[in-house]
Every structure is written in C-alpha cells, then in structure tokens.
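Reviewers asked in the last cycle whether our approach scales beyond single polypeptides. To address this, we selected a multi-component target totalling 1252 residues and predicted its structure end to end. The input consisted of the following lines:
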Amino acid sequence: MLTSESHIFFVSLDRRKESVTSKVEDIRSLKSFGYLEDIIGLAIEPAFIVMALKKVKGNFERIFDKNMTDLVRGIRNNKDSEAKYIAQCIEEIKIELKQDNIAVKANAVTKLAYLQMLGYDISWAGFNIIEVMSSPKFTHKRIGYLSASQCFHADQELLMLTTNMIRKDLNSQNQYEAGNALSALACFVSPDLARDLSNDILTLLTSTKPYLRKKGVLMLYKIFLKYPDALRPAFPRLKEKLEDPDPGVQSAAVNVICELARKNPKNYLSLAPIFFKLMTTSTNNWMLIKIIKLFGALTPLEPRLGKKLIEPLTNLIHSTSAMSLLYECINTTIAVLISISTGMPNHSSSINLCVQKLRILIEDSDQNLKYLGLLAMSKILPTHPKSVQTHKDLVMRCLDDKDESIRLRALDLLYGMVNKKNLMEIVKKLLVHMEKAEGTSYRDELLSKIIQICSQNNYQHITNFEWYVSVLVELTRVEGLSHGELVASQMLDVAVRVEAIRPFAVQQMSLLLENPYVIFGLSGGGSSRASTMIQVLYAAAWISGEYVTFLPNPRSTLLAMLEPRTAQLPHNIQSVYLQNVLKILAHLLTHPEPTPTPADVPQVNGEVPAKEGSEDYEPVEEQNESKELNLVEIQEKLKPFVSSEELEVQERASTLFNIIKVYLKLAGKQELNSESFGSELVHFFAGDLNPVAPKAQKKVPLPEGLDLDKWINDPPSESEEEDDEEVDSTQGVFVNHGTQSMAEFYGKTEAKKTYQPTEEELQKQRETRRMEQELNPHYLKSSSKSSPTKKSESDVPPIAKLELNVPLRIPGLASSDKYLEEASKSSSKSSKSKKVSGSKEKGKKKKKRKHGADDENEEEERKATKSISPEPEPIHVVSTAIEMPEGATLSDNEDSLLPENDPHRALNIDLDIPLEPSEVLPVPSHRKTKKSLDPHYITDNNHHTKSKEQPAKAPKSQNSDEHPEEPQKTKESSKKKKKLKKDKKNDHEPLPEENGGDESTKTKKKKKKDKSEKKTSSKHKKSQNSEVNLMLDSLEEDSNLSSKDAYYGLISELKAKNYDRFLTFWSNYFDQNHSRYVILYVQQIRGSLKGKSEP
Amino acid sequence: MMQFMLLFSRQGKLRLQKWYVAQPDKARKKITRDLVTTILARKPKMCSFLEWRDLKIVYKRYASLYFCCAIEQQDNELLCLEIIHRYVELLDKYFGSVCELDIIFNFEKAYFILDELLIGGEVQETSKKNVLKAIAAQDLLQEDEMMDSILREHGLI
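The resulting structure, written as structure tokens, was:
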C-alpha cells in the first residue's frame, strides 16, 4: 500500500498535473499515510536523511515554485490563445486562494503579481494579498508586499486593514521585514496610512541600523506628500540626519530635502550653510548632484548665495570627470548667473566657462551629451544671447545631425540666434532642410519653427516683409504639412498689421486664388494631398477681399473664386470666398476704371476721390456693359452654392445672389447707377479690422444688469426689457448708414484710421515707393504699366490655366531667394551706410494705436531703407495695435507657480517657526490589547454611551495621558452622533482630529460626512448603533474568537450599520492569523452595504 | 524624483513595471503603450532622452531589453542613466550575466533588487555591494525558512 502511494506521488510529480490543488492533496494523503516518517524510519545513516530531506525539499519547491515557471512557460507556449490560457490560470488561482495553506496562497499571489505586470486586473485579490502579507513567514511577506506595492492604490478602502500589520512589520526585529514594508508602503501610501504611520516611521530614524534609517528618511518624503501636517514636527529629525554618520543616510536626507526645497524653496533658505559645508566637503557624486540641484532652486531667492556659490561651482566644473555632475554644475551655474544681476565683470568669465564646456559636450560623439549640451545652451540663451551666438556655427552643424531630437534642440536655439542680419540666411537654410527632411512631423516642426523665428517679438527681425510673404507663399507649396492654419493666420496677421505690405500681399494672394490647383496640387477629385495647406486659401480670399483696392485684376480674381471647383473646398473656405466675392464686387462697382496699380491707390479703404472717376469716364461705360453681363454670369455661378448643404455657405450665397438680383432690377429700371449702389455696398465693409488681443473677450466688462446665467426667456417680463435694449442698439448700428456712425460704433480709434492723406502726402508716398522699387532690382511689377527695366530677369510666360498635378512655377509668384540675394548685395554696400538713430525704431515699437502718425513713420522708414546700415533697418512697420475693451490692460501672469493639484502646494510650510506643543505626530494606541486589560473598560463605555447627549466633554479630556482609553471612548461616543464614519479614526488616534489645521483631512471628513449622513439620519438608527457598539465592545472583550455563530449573529444584527468600527475591529485581528474570518466578514458586510445602497 | 520605470523587450513585451506615483490602471496601460511604441520607433543612434508630456523620458537599451524611466523636468538625465546602468549591473551580478529570460522567470527577484536600489522613486543605496548584501541576506532568510518549515512540518525539529 505504501509503495503504491509513493508511486502515485512521484508519478503525479512527473506528470506535473495542471493545478496545484491536486498536488497538495497528494501530499496530504502521503502525510496521512506516514510516508515520510517511514522513509526516515528506514534510514539508518544520517547521509540518507539529508538526501531524503533534500529530495522532499526539492519536491516542495517544485510543487510551488515550478508553478510560477509553469505559468510563464504556459503563456509563452500559448501565444495564440494567451487570453484564454490566462483566464484559465486565473480560475486556478482563485481555487488556490481558497485553500487554507498559506504557502499555496503565496504562490498564487506570486502568479498574480506576474499577471498584473502583463496588464491583467488583479484588484479582486486584494484581501488575499493582505493575507499573504500578514503571514509570519518572511518568504510570504516578501511576495505579499511586492504584490501589494504593484497593485494597491492609495484610494482603496482595503488599505485600512493593513495599518496595524504594517506598523507591526515596521517595528519588527528583522530589519528586512521592515524594509519590505517600507518599499511597498512607498508605492501605495494613502493619507490615512501616512497619518497613522508617520510616528512609526519617524522612530525608524533613530534606529541603530543604517539600513532602516536610510529607508525611513526616504519614506518621510512620501509621508509629507500625503500628510503635510507631519512636515513641521518631523523636520528637526530629518535635519539631524544631514549629519548622520552613515553616508547613505546622509545622502537620503539630502535627497528628501532637495525634493522638498525644489517645490517650495523659500522655506529652506536657512539650511543653505549646512548644504554649503556638505558641498565643499563631500566627494559623493550622487549626493553632490542633489545638493547642487538644491542650490539651483535656492539661488533665485537669494542672489548673495549665488555669488558665494560661483567659486566652488567653477572649481567643480574644472575638476570633475563625471559628466552628470558637470552637467548639474553647469545648470546651477546658469541659474546662479541668471539670478545675479548682470554687469558683474568677473561673471562673464564663468558664463564663458559654461559655454565652453557646453561646446565640448555638443562636440562630443555621444548623442546624449550633445542633446544635453544644446538643452543647457537654450537655458543660457535668454539672458546671455551674445555668448551663445558666438557658437552659431556649432548649432547650424547640429541642424544636420542624424538624430531628430538633436535637430529639434538645435532649432530651439536658432530661435534666439537670429537677428536682422542673418534671418534670411537662416530661414533659407531651414527651407532647404524642409525639402530634404523625411517624415512629416519633422517638417511640421520646421515650419512652425520658421514661423516662430520670424514672428517673434512682433516680427522684430524682419526687415523686408515682401521676403516674409514670399516665404509664407513658398511654404504653402511644401507637400504634406499639417500647419496650413498656422501659415494662413500668419498671412492674415502680416497683411493686417503691416500696412505697407498689403499691395504686395494682395498681389501674391490673388495669384494663389487664381491658381489654387497648381499650387496645392489639387486633382479633380478634391482635396486629398494637402488637405490642411488648403486653409491658406482662406487667408488669401480674406486678404484679397479686404484689401481689394490693391487687387491687380479684381475681375479675374472674382471669377477665379467662383470657379465650379470652389465647391470642393472645405466649407469654411467656401463661405469666406463668398463673403469676399461680395467685397470685390462692391469694389468693382465703385471702381469701374481699369485696374489701378497699387501705387496709384490711396491706402485707406473707403470712398474714392471723386476726381478719378471723372477722368476715365469713357472706359467706365464700357466696363459697365461688360459688368452687367458678368453679373448675370456671376449669378449663374452662384447657383450651386445657393443649394450647398452647408448652412453658412448657403446663406451667404443666397444673400449675394439676391443683392445682385436687386441690383440688376434697379439697374434695369435706370433708377440708380452702379457707383451709388456700389458705395452702398462698400459701407458694409468700411473700417479697418484690427487683430483682437488673445484675452480681450475676458476683459469685456459685463454690462450692468446682464446676468449671463439667467435664462433668456424666463421670466418673460425681463426678456421684454432686453428686447427694448436690443432695438435701441440696432438703431445705432444699422439704421444710420453714414461712415461717421460706423466709426462711432467701432470706437474712437477707428475715426483716426479713416484718416485721409492729403494730396501732398500721397505724392510723397508714391515717390518713396517708386524709389524703393528702383532700389530693388528684383521688384516685380504687377502690371505692364511699370517700366520694363524692372521686370524680373526670368522671361515670364503668359498665365495659362493648366490643370496639372505637378506644382509649376507661377509667374509673378515671389521667390524668397531673391530677397536673400538682394540682402547680401546690399550688405556689401554697407560701407556707404549712414547712421540711423535708434530712436526711430524705439518710437515705432512704442507706437500703439497712433495711427495718425503711421504715414509719417513710414516715410522715415522708407528713407531709411535707402541707406543700408550694418544692422538693416526694417522696410515695413508692424502695427502692434490690438483691439481691447476700454480700460482693460494686457496681463499674462495669471497662473501661479505650482499647478493646482500638485501635492507640494500643501507642503509650503514655514519650518523656522518653533514647534507648538500641539504639533505632534499622531501616536497610535493599541486599543485591543489595552482594552482587554482594562477592567473599567465596559463601565466607561456604558457610561459614555448613556451620556452621549452631552458632547462637550470630548475635547477637554483628550490630553490626559493617564487613561488613554477614556478620552478616546468619550470622543468616540460624542462624535457618533454626528458622523459614524469618523469612529475609525477616533479609535486609532485622537490627536489629528483636534489639530484641525489639516486641509486635506478636513475635506476628507466632509466627504465622509456626506456619505454617512444617510446612515445617521434618524435617531432610531442612532440607538441601534449604540447597541451595535455595545455588542462590539463586548465582542472585543471576548477572547474566544472561534465562536463563529456569535459573529454571524452579530453581522445579521449589524447589517453594516457600523461598518467602520467593525472593520477597524477586525483589522486588529488581522495580525493574529484570523485573517480568514476578517475577510469573510468584511466581504459579507460589503455585500450588505451594496444591497443597501442600491435601492 | 523618478515617476516610474518600465522594462520591455524589443517586441514590446513588458517585463517589469514600477510606479512611484499613483496612476489608475487605465492610465498606466495607456502610458506604457504610448512609450513602448515611441521608443521602439526610435533609431539606435538617437539620443536617450525624450520630452514627453511634462516629463522627461530616459531610456537605454541593454541587449534585447529597453530600460525606460520617467523623471521630472528638473531632474538630471545623466544621473537617471546612471541609475539605469547601476540597476543593470546589479541584475548582472545577481543573476550572473543576466539575460531577458532571467528576468522573465525570476521577475520577483528583479523587483526585489529594484526595491533595494530605489524607494519611492529615490535612490536609496548607491553601493552595489550593499544592495547585493541585502538581497543575499533576504534570500538566505527565505531559504532558512523553507528548510525550517519542512523540518517542522514533519516533526523533525
């Protein structure tokens, strides 16, 4: 019989049955048959015993450990049906977890930890993990804590079961048990745990074992984050650890203080001398890096500290061979130099040292160092642009690097390297890069960088906006970019803000409008390739419409915009097209003469001087006739848009359609001529449009009596009032058609903008413009009128509407290169340059809304461009005027230093104020043990539950140390009336309650209060609860835990009325190997809670 | 402070994950997926740093395994690389020329070593010797316990 059993045993091992369960069963049966005893009984020689033991041990290991390996192997072998296999494994694990054998459970938990890593949810096994954690065996503890650290979250209710167990382990004789508990706690510490265990962790700092001191110190940081109240009481001890004899502990303390100080530096300034000493004496690079980082955070607050630091830092930079330390030193030196006001002569040497070292880093073959060098350079750039600019060659070289992230860093640096002289050259280089670059994301990055570089500081570095517009137009031709809207908004911005560029911009835009299919590579099938770049047409249409006076050939542009293929464009572009068709139409009606050259047209929109019309009377007639034909044609072309599926397009199209209809009708009756109708239309578009400040809407003051939260239609009486107001305002806006009232509507600034230049000024303008053109050999004339000598060198073929997919060179479309050539030519002429005072430039920058002075300024501007100084003067002026409601100012600093949800906000605590006696860490009291010893316990409790109607007692008795049980109980019963949920906390530690200073606990309490309100709503329930409490009390008295029936009875009685106290009660038993009961009951209670909350 | 550490293979299989800042499971999965794809897409000659959300990612490849850490903006990237290297050295010493399979089959040991090196995202022990000593001591404890329990189970002591 014996042999057959043993045979089964080994066979079962060899076959390695699917589940552990069966194996364990096998072992049990073996044991019951006395198999092992027999073997040992047979053994006479000790060697045999050892062998047998080894064999048994091996078998044991195989049974349990192999299983983890089995799992891994199984997963690897079932690659096709992994999910199915794992589901099966989880089922097995569930069975294993139901077993009594803790070793089996531990093994199951190990497997769970592995599955968790693979991404499977194991939160359902939380109780089992706690069970394994609570095992007295180190092996189980170790794996239990590991699993807990992997899958527990700080917001789990489960965690409160662990408090006592972790406390016990922290105070364990075995330092590794404490170590494991700390490692796990660091991952899932919750505010409750932090509060309850803060004192225990602080005690670890006085441990004799450096291993524990070190871990304790680091753990404190996590505690502070979760329980900020601990910071002040614990800080003195932490500070002591800076001088710990063990370097590891010392380093840990530096770590923690560094982390704290980085977020709230001003509270740690007083520690600077200690750290300074440490920095100059220590040779531990790990610690030095942290100290230096800490100084980097402190120096912005205390420039004197920075001055003191420079010397040791430069010494370190010179001496160290560790790159990480060198990098940290450079970073901190930069921070120091930024904080010290400039002008100190000896600091230029240290900045040069930094830049020099960075250059070495950048030139290193190690890509990582290169990257970091560039990164650090970009930190120096804002304050010391000159020293960085000397390494332009290096940065430009990095632009050609193979590594994209390095190129991106170099691009960041370029931003600060451009100036008026080299901007064109650099942008040219970037454009070349763009052609070569693979991958659209890098191209996109390049494009946005080009725009960023050019547009920085209100286009500070751009001297010639014709060049910039050409660059933008060139960018539209690059394939596959996703920043179409960015380019479009730049075009709009430039056209709106640089008045002088409008003629050129309009000319370029009209080319874009007339040749969209060539430029954007649109095939007949619609937008596919360059879907976002098409947005540029939006800007093109708007600019052409808004500044229609500069259009070289309004009619052809208008017709181009109404091409049938427009209907394939995105809807927003279609509607802009239609709106601007109307603008162009209005212009054509008022300006019937053949297209004027931009130079001949006054810059201001609006009415045309009457003289011009009379001069060219003859052509007007002709034009008129052809236009009427056109109008019918236009009407025809509008028809598809009128039936567009997009509402906006449809509406605009029908408006336009009907306007033309009305006009044709009136014209047919000879009741009005085109000009007067046109001028009526022009009124719709009178007045300049200015850019609006980004936050302007926020600054608009709410009109009195307007409540945005009110329902518009409710109550009816109020809505009537509002209607009245509306009528008033519409009268002001729409009834009076005169320009004057329009100007009034747009505000006073508008009135200045409709300023009409005198004839003299116009003459002057024209002259200067001509001169400018003469200066510019490549200037393209938009019309044939201009002298042939100024035509561009390339022979321009006639415009033919070719529908090709290949982007062609479009005649007249400016190329940015020629401006670059021009610039290089002119710089060679720079010897002639005459001095241009900087005051002009300043004046320009300052001018805000001084539109009256604009023209004068531009005059000066143009004169200035005749002479090219080494720092080229801008040809065009950027208007910085932006629309803002009256009385509002631009303010950008609205966000505070730390983000709202940063836990460090709560840690902004002054540490220099001496500790108050009330500021102590909560001290745990082990209720369970003391209670059973305290003979007065029951009577006390009875007394309090009876007198629970008198709540005032609680706070007074808190501080008495003689009977620690009493105050607790008093408080407990008094609070019970208000919120049962709090009981749990009261049981454990009364102190934090009375502190009351902690925001986070307060809010938590609130939440809990809300939750518990349901339960405590009626008095009847209260009395029930007190009964339950009494039962619990007597239960706690009863040491016989195994009387199961009593507990079941109790639970049915409880029905989760005092869930928290119950949980706490049980959690105390957790350490005593009654975990199974705990889990059973807790689960049962949770179930009944769920049942309650559902209805 | 280190926010999390991930180990994954060239095939994108996760081999180890350690989170020092609480994240819901969903977020963890998303972050992992994002980073694994981004890093695997990078060419070998590229530098080891990435700007990612408001964090910096530092990664390094050792044989078939990628070690990837997320650190805060002000943290020192080179120091982080140093930590990764230290961890690899420790694994190597412990397993004896470590390979990916060692970590797969002894994943808990890999975690234990990491826990001795870092706690709560901070370096706790810079000496390799000390870390290995602590691990060895704990392994010994486990072995003793195992022996003890077997003997006890069968009434030998």
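Chain B touches chain A through 59 residues (CB under 8 Å). We regard this as preliminary and will revisit it once experimental data from Aim 1 are available.
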